[in-house]
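Consortium newsletter contribution from the modelling node. Members have asked for a concrete example of what our holo predictions look like. Here is one, prepared for the magnesium ion complex that several groups have been discussing at recent meetings.
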Amino acid sequence: MTDAIVATSAADSTARTAPKVVPRHVAIIMDGNGRWAKRRFLPRIEGHRNGAKSVRAVVEECRRLGVRHLTLFAFSTENWRRPQDEVGGLMSLFVQHLESELELLLKNDIRLRAMGDTARLPPAVRDMLRRNEERTAGLQGMDLILAVSYGGRDELVQAARKIAAAARDGELDPLAITEESFGRYLYLPDVPDPDLLIRTSDETRISNFLLWQLAYAEIVVSPVLWPDFSRDEFHRCLNVFAGRSRRFGLTQEQVEGE
Ligand code: IPE
Ligand code: IPE
Ligand code: MG
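And here is the predicted structure:
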């Protein structure tokens, strides 16, 4: 039942030990930028600016290890309620990095995909997301999924609306709705559920991230603030994941007998 990929030693081209099991899909709640800045008596936006460096390191490392999907929580539906200058600063950073990192995506065979209520984003961010999505559409090395203006409840509500409309129009029998068919109304129906969820900065909340898809994800909390999140800390999280026993509701004996 495990969908994770067993890593080969050949994948380890650095001194870092290759993790025993590489998750197929890693999701990360990148948290702690504000606290990182506060500790340095800097404005919060400096924390976000420095967080971008960690994004690059994790993207490159996931690609190198053979992770198929990496989902990064960049901005939540609740984050719209933050002070206007912080929201504006984050939007500028998104535009800036989407512009500058296109090369990295092309070079590494990475497809960019956005998930969320992107209609709420300023046109400059939307256009840049669309440009990168179009330019990387055929790339198959890895999916980099950016959750922007994303809320798990929001995603479920928009799915419910589409399902209700289809039922109203006689295209869908309510009794024919299954977990599988419901999943097809979510933002990215073809992407498998995350195997591993990492949250940084020692917070132990889901904060409205991927409520449906995280049903059986292994959760690893890192104490490190996102701007300080390094390749080594990422490997530590992967090793914790590799040591977990995933049972999906079965007994340990059943899992071992599989
Ligand atoms: C995460 O860092 C980034 C976003 C939510 C956009 P925070 O900005 O939440 O940092 P803290 O939690 O205040 O330290
Ligand atoms: C979650 O972090 C959202 C992102 C990382 C984009 P928050 O910092 O917004 O979450 P809470 O408010 O601490 O739950
Ligand atoms: Mg936070």
